Amino acid sequence: DAARLPVFSQQKTGDAWEVLEDTRLADLINRAPNPEISGNEWRSMVFRDLLTHGNHLSLIVRNGAGEVEQIQPQVFGTWSVNWKHDQRVLSYALAGIGSIAPADVLHIRLDGEQPFWGISPIDRHASILKTILAQYRAANSAFTSTLGKVALSTDDHLSPDAVRAISEAFEQKHSTAESWGSPIITGGGMQAKVFQNELSRNEYVSSQNFGVADVGRIFGVPASMLYASDQAGMTSSGTGQREVYGYIETGLRPLLDRFTSHLALKLLPPNQKLSFDTRALSRGSFGEAVASLRMGIDAGFLSPAEARKAMEMPPAPADQGLDQFVISKNYQAEAGDGDATGIDSSAGVED
Length: 351
Description:
alpha+beta
């Protein structure tokens, strides 16, 4: 999601941020940062490196005028950070190139304990992920076994060789899921008793849901969007707008802000910035989008022309007057202190 969202440039004019159309940097990010890869491929590499390694580095290639011509991503592990704390000097080393100044690279990183080095969610939460992996392995072992732990007992005295032979024969015959239909036949007064219950299918699925929910919390994704039960035990397909909004703000926004703030720091003047267009994710269904835009038009902070643009529809003819703001009667203030129904809402109480 973070890789496929379009990026646009903005410039601050007074107190407002205005969208800049067709800027060189936005074109590089969206279309192709270099002739070898597309913008989507590059951003996928950036965010994949952030989530798996906590760091991503790309080389900035400029022309003679100092303008950015290309952005070339570097494979993680082929570059290093050199920070000399006592001298307050930072540099980078790239395999096959050598030492590079910080102004010539984009080093996008997450938070970390060391200067200029981020820690990935996988490394930061390694103990949780290892516990989940152990749970999955244990559940898989128990679930694929036909029986739980079985005790075979008899009053007869058995030699060590006989005990070993019986154990091996029982394990070979009844220890796998394929032997579920095989009956246990005993003789000579021997009894078979299961003293550890096998893991039921519901318990197996429940253990999986715990793991999915933990991973969702690590990456800021609501569990119900991952088709797992949420805290209330409800399972959904993740289409609720509240869940989508939470996913955008807690899961995607921190990554998007890391990306745009670092590129603005290295490549843009102070009065410009980059932003991701998240409307495609938060729009909801067509009916929900239309109802929401209709409320904005009625309230007077959206024009019909702006609503069409938000729905990515072509502009209407100029003579239709869709660029005019129209406030619905329900949103208009009545004369005096009355509300929309004409009733004095102050009830005689002074301000």
